[in-house]
Amino acid sequence: MTNEDAKVIPVRVALRCRPLVPKEINEGCQSCLTFVPNEPQVIVGTEKAFTYDYVFDPTSEQEEVFSTAISPLLNGIFKGYHATVLAYGQTGSGKTYSMGGTYTSAQENDPSVGVIPRVIRRIFEEKEKRADSEFCLTVSYLEIYNEDILDLLSSSKDKPAISIREDPKEGIKIVGLTERQVVSAPEMVGCLELGNSVRTVGSTAMNAASSRSHAIFTITLEQRRGSDKVDSVVSKLHLVDLAGSERQKKTKAEGDRLKEGISINRGLLCLGNVISALGDESKKNTFVPYRDSKLTRLLQDSLGGNSHTLMIACVSPADSNMEETINTLRYADRARKIKNKPIVNVDPRAAEMNRLKQQ
């Protein structure tokens, strides 16, 4: 392990604020956020200021968010680093919009498409440029609904049980998850559309099509480089659209919707506990509760592990949501203190062969 490999990189945080929506304007809401020009800083109300790695105000377009915050991660993917993009925020703050969680191929050149379709396009453009390498791309798509992992790409009626295993060499593995090999961008978009069409969505008072589950779209990129194609590097990109944190009095949820809300909030609470345990300098070497929920278990490498991670914190500017907005801002602020140790993921067999050759 060289010194360069083991360098520590903090989790990067991008704050994204959406414009006021018609419902909020009709209710006479004012914006409670002030953006500091040319500084990645936002001021809530009159006194509280928060600083992040990137701040996108309501006028920012999807392209700007992608080119500023996401592009650097994609360059790392081709070098063999894992990466994760995580969208967090309250219900109706624009997570699924930012991630592109409702994308269909009909929107191909629409400037409002989110991160995932842009990532897909970019990966295939880069792949074309690198003619000297062989590429193998696979995708998987899962959702965590009421603490169960559901495979969104599975075609069979009786869905197999999915379990999480930890492999000492490869980290977290999900046993029983469908992985589809894809060769073209339209084919990968097809997998995304298929998954989106079966994702659990319900209506609440705050959002007509509220995501009721955490969804993780994973692209695995295996590249074989060199003349004899032995030098193999495998990197994974996790694109995570979390379900929104919500207050029951605002969503007016009852019955199943309420149960889902409780389960969503429990998952997000566990995520918050992990972020707090990792980010707090004074609690060095404390126990990190990854196993408290399926969500934190799957994101174990992304938070404090082997990955370049970007968290997109989505907020609503309306003063009626001020309490939730401050919670999101604090959550994102803690996430910036997490240190990750990304390494290049070389195929162990290839590394062993190189070592023997050198001997």
Automatic annotation (TrEMBL):
<protein>
    <recommendedName>
        <fullName>Kinesin-like protein</fullName>
    </recommendedName>
</protein>
<dbReference type="Pfam" id="PF00225">
    <property type="entry name" value="Kinesin"/>
</dbReference>
<keyword id="KW-0206">Cytoskeleton</keyword>
<dbReference type="InterPro" id="IPR027640">
    <property type="entry name" value="Kinesin-like_fam"/>
</dbReference>
<dbReference type="InterPro" id="IPR019821">
    <property type="entry name" value="Kinesin_motor_CS"/>
</dbReference>
<keyword id="KW-0505">Motor protein</keyword>
<comment type="similarity">
    <text>Belongs to the TRAFAC class myosin-kinesin ATPase superfamily. Kinesin family.</text>
</comment>
<feature type="binding site">
    <location>
        <begin position="89"/>
        <end position="96"/>
    </location>
    <ligand>
        <name>ATP</name>
    </ligand>
</feature>
<feature type="domain" description="Kinesin motor">
    <location>
        <begin position="10"/>
        <end position="338"/>
    </location>
</feature>
<keyword id="KW-0493">Microtubule</keyword>
<dbReference type="InterPro" id="IPR001752">
    <property type="entry name" value="Kinesin_motor_dom"/>
</dbReference>
<keyword id="KW-0547">Nucleotide-binding</keyword>
<keyword id="KW-0963">Cytoplasm</keyword>
<keyword id="KW-0067">ATP-binding</keyword>
<keyword id="KW-0175">Coiled coil</keyword>
<dbReference type="InterPro" id="IPR027417">
    <property type="entry name" value="P-loop_NTPase"/>
</dbReference>
<dbReference type="InterPro" id="IPR036961">
    <property type="entry name" value="Kinesin_motor_dom_sf"/>
</dbReference>
